[in-house]
TrEMBL record:
UniProt superkingdom: Eukaryota
Family the entry assigns: Belongs to the FMO family.
Keywords for the protein's UniProt record, in alphabetical order: FAD, Flavoprotein, NADP, Oxidoreductase, Signal
Protein name: FAD/NAD(P)-binding domain-containing protein
Gene3D superfamilies membership: FAD/NAD(P)-binding domain
Signal peptide: 1-23
GO molecular function, one term: NADP binding
Pfam families in the record: FMO-like, NAD_binding_8
Keyword Oxidoreductase included in the entry's annotation: yes
């Protein structure tokens, strides 16, 4: 049998290509936070944490639910989709077209949908005879079909209580991984058919606001919306609120597309919306038979989709940027891109279409001056942005990478390229009863979530201690200085070395607290 090692899986999941090549390319930065000493002053929570809301039933949210429930918390799980699995819920249904240009980051995923003013909650509505196209768009926006394609190969290490069969090949289909994550959900009675009163599918978190008791901040209020399509032209919705002491946000990293602002692309998209798609909408290659396709961006999605399209399309252009990617440089992907793919430099502009009646009549211009005509389809594979539409109060798009807020709380999100203001990329330093699960790149989601969840469980009980806010900001600023002083999209990238170091830190921290206060000790990441 092939060993399913977390370390190897990490590398594969981050770049999908053989470990040797990737491992050499990694430049993990080392986090230099010190281990808190028993006598050090620590952050004191202003209210006890009993009831925790978890957002997202992907592998991260499911692991977090299991860990917090076993630690004795009163837990609720909310998932906008109708099944568990997160990214690993493949459907033929595709997400809506990515808006071009990008929407503002605050509502790049969705604009929160709130109950009509003045209604008493819970509030339910049922609608009939609505426009079918409108309803389809509404359904897609609510559940957000996931960005995986039919032939996608994947790999993930097992979750401790659910071993993979011994003879399973190293690479499996996304469908198999989907079944595995569902099996894990079922194992803990969290699946859709388990009728678990603490688990809510079809339910999107719309807003999280501070809750006040006697004028003092005490926990959080979530506004929730359940949306169920009941027929081809009918649906029902329900809004309600729920109060929590703490919230774990496990909404994944791929909810909001990032489209490069290339001159003229918006005009092309307005005129030929059926011929321009983001990688999140790609499902299968047949529709591209005998077509000329331009793929923009050559990281995991672009390179893999290009390889698949090449056997169907008549010509595939793959446009890459000149500047090197610090972690996964282009050279890494080139050996896996079929030789008959036409590699081209960055696109400078999509030229005005004038009276063109087909997209192939338009021309594009590359930065090296060459013009290309005859493109039937464009696939934008330029990645995703982080955003949390339910926390608009902590999103400040006006800040640049070298700027911090001069007043008020430091934000979580600015331009969507990264998430900031977190201790250990987990606790929001301004409000440590908000925790983020699996936001890093260059780690293995199926393993890393275990340590994040265990740390949250221990910290919110008051066992493992967080440093004071001043101390968290001090180590944070030091880390930013070590990183070069400017936040950018690689801020959350770990790589296997740093991810391993972080997991060991979590183990030592949680276990030290368990020795002192009792509770479950956790095992370190297994070395392969
Ligand atoms: C194309 C592709 C290939 C990949 N290949 C691999 C691989 O081979 N191996 C690997 O280990 N990883 C791979 N990954 C990474 C993958 O994201 C992780 O394996 C895993 O899905 C992360 O789990 P998660 O729970 O953190 O997030 P997700 O799986 O993204 O789950 C987040 C969940 O939150 C829900 N949600 C979001 N917003 C809300 C809201 N407002 N209210 C309620 N629910 C909400 C979503 O519907 C979703 O179900 C790949 C990713 C992509 C895009
Ligand atoms: N099988 C798998 O394991 C698998 C498959 C697919 C995806 N994934 C995962 O899914 C996530 C998303 O991957 P992704 O490939 O969709 O996004 P991504 O990793 O963010 O890559 C986007 C790419 O587009 C490039 N780009 C941006 N603007 C461009 C422009 N104007 N012209 C040319 N290139 C441009 C970027 O280059 P710059 O760096 O220069 O900005 C980058 O290389 C990753 O975490 C990945 O690991 C995994
Ligand atoms: C509903 O109330 C909010 C806050 O009071 C207000 O900003 C908004 O304009 C109101 N909307 C309508 C439709 O009345
Ligand atoms: C693609 O082109 C080939 C060769 O010209 C032709 O035989 C085939 O029918 C075409 N397929 C489609 C779907 O147009
Ligand atoms: C590219 O080569 C592969 C085989 O390596 C072949 O199957 C495919 O049809 C070719 N594609 C094009 C566009 O020539
Ligand atoms: C520009 O790039 C294209 C595609 O790679 C290439 O064919 C062409 O020769 C290049 N032109 C210049 C001037 O370098
Ligand atoms: C941030 O960088 C921009 C240029 O990119 C510069 O104009 C601005 O002064 C910088 N701000 C700070 C606070 O350094």
């Amino acid at each position: 049998m092939r060993l399913r090692s977390p370390a190897l899986a990490l590398i594969l999941s981050s770049c999908a290509y053989p470990s040797i090549v990737c491992a050499e390319q990694q430049q993990p930065f080392i986090l230099n936070h010190e281990f808190p000493v028993r006598e050090d002053p620590f952050y004191e929570f202003r209210w006890p944490v009993h009831k925790v809301g978890i957002i997202g039933a992907g592998v991260g949210g499911l692991i977090t639910y299991r860990t917090l429930a076993q630690a004795g918390y009163d837990v609720r799980l909310y998932e906008r989709d109708h099944h568990p699995g997160g990214v690993w819920h493949y459907t033929e249904e595709t997400p809506l077209n990515a808006p071009i240009p990008n929407l503002p980051v605050v509502n790049a995923d969705y604009t929160p949908s709130l109950p009509p003013n003045g209604t008493r909650l819970p509030h339910e509505e049922e609608h009939f005879q609505v426009d079918e196209n409108w309803l389809t768009a509404e359904r897609k926006a609510h559940r957000l079909p996931k960005p995986v394609w039919a032939s996608l190969k994947s790999n993930a290490p097992h979750i401790p209580e659910l071993h993979w069969p011994e003879d399973l090949p190293w690479e499996i289909s996304a469908k198999q991984l989907q079944s595995y994550v569902r099996a894990f959900a079922s194992y803990h009675s969290l699946n859709t058919n388990d009728e678990n009163p603490n688990v809510f599918y079809n339910t999107r978190v719309e807003l999280i606001e501070k809750r006040f008791i006697d004028g003092r901040h005490h926990g959080w209020t979530m506004t929730l919306k359940e949306f169920i399509q009941t027929g081809p032209q009918s649906y029902k919705v329900k809004w309600w609120t729920e109060d929590f002491d703490a919230i774990a946000i496990a909404t994944g990293r791929y909810n909001s597309p990032s489209v490069s602002p290339i001159t003229g692309l918006a005009e092309w998209n307005d005129k030929f919306p059926e011929n321009i798609h983001h990688s999140r909408q790609y499902r299968r290659p047949e529709g591209f038979t005998n077509k000329t396709v331009l793929i923009i961006g050559a990281a995991s999605s672009g390179a893999e989709i290009a390889a698949e399209l090449n056997t169907f399309a008549s010509k595939v252009y793959l446009s890459t940027r000149v500047h090197p990617h610090p972690h996964y440089p282009l050279e890494l992907f080139i050996p896996f891109i079929p030789k008959n793919t036409t590699m081209i430099p960055e696109v400078k502009s999509f030229n005005p279409l004038g009276t063109a009646t087909k997209m192939s009549e338009g021309t594009i211009e590359l930065f090296n001056g060459t013009k290309i005509a005859g493109i039937d389809h464009v696939l934008v594979c330029t990645g995703f942005r982080y955003t949390y539409p339910f926390l608009p109060q902590y999103i400040n798009p006006s800040l640049r990478g070298n700027e911090t807020a001069s007043e008020g709380p430091q934000p979580l999100v600015t331009d969507g390229s990264h998430v900031r203001s977190l201790h250990l990329d987990l606790f929001y330093i301004e409000e440590p009863t908000l925790a983020f699960i699996n936001i890093n790149g260059g780690m293995q989601s199926f393993v890393y979530a275990e340590y994040l969840a265990a740390a949250a469980a221990s910290v919110w009980k008051g066992h493992a201690k967080l440093p004071t806010q001043n101390e968290m900001w001090r180590t944070y600023s030091q880390r930013l200085r070590d990183f070069g002083g400017i936040f950018e999209k690689h801020w959350l990238f770990l790589g296997s070395g740093a991810a391993d170091g972080e997991m060991r830190y979590f183990v030592a921290w949680v276990n030290e607290a368990a020795v002192r206060y009792g509770g479950k000790q956790i095992n370190g990441p297994s070395k392969a």
